[in-house]
């Protein structure tokens, strides 16, 4: 069956429309009785589940992922030569409107406050959220629906903030540099624009999305953390070193000598399962793994397989998460300051 129609830019041509009919017939034949299947349009990117009728409409409106020539997610069998292409197909970045993307983020963070139903959880009983969470949800929703300036249809306030912060992180922009650029952008826009004036105010808007971090004071000599039952102590129990810095007048200030930044693990794992874009990836090792002699995922390794044999009950549920641990120290300022070092500890799925 020829798949050349997928690359046809004219989605109203007979070749393209006939190709859609061939795909829908193929999906019907290989998924008998299914009411919803993965949608391979450029917007859904094989991560969202739609009715077969809606998929036909999506493919006309958005087009099919151009690299999805082997319909392995809809029942087509992979051979060894083509199986390595499957990973690349799944990782194609969809063309998504930024405002829709931001709304998807909000729905992922507050799935029970949203009126939209996640297709993969349609049988679940909705769980209410408390008033504080709902207040955060309403603030984010307000910023997501508020125009960046009157008459602006391309960007809402939240969309502009998310886009700018994404590029700040991607290109490793300092806070000072970001503040300067933000000031320039704000002067370029109409005077009644709603763009935050600096990084601090931008962070306040994004706080409602969660995934923040905790600051925990630590002993200067790394003996202990001033945490939980030791949270009120002013000196280290091991070396008696002061928790806070001393001023030139030998007076203790409330500035800690050393701080550890802790990024809580549990909400980050929960977020991976809240998002429709990542929930399926978290189960890939069980549901979509190709069992051959090609090493393309840790699940193909002998260590993973030995773990499954040792803990069969844990391995039986594909939602259980295996975590890796990595750490190393580095001196962020090189030879300019040998006294400062950073020791991040990464836990990753």
TrEMBL record:
Q: Which domain of life is it from?
A: Eukaryota
Residue stretches making up the Transposase-associated domain:
3-76
Transmembrane segments in this chain: where?
Answer: none
Q: Which InterPro entries match?
A: Transpos_assoc, Transposase_21
Mind telling me what this protein is named? Answer: Transposase-associated domain-containing protein
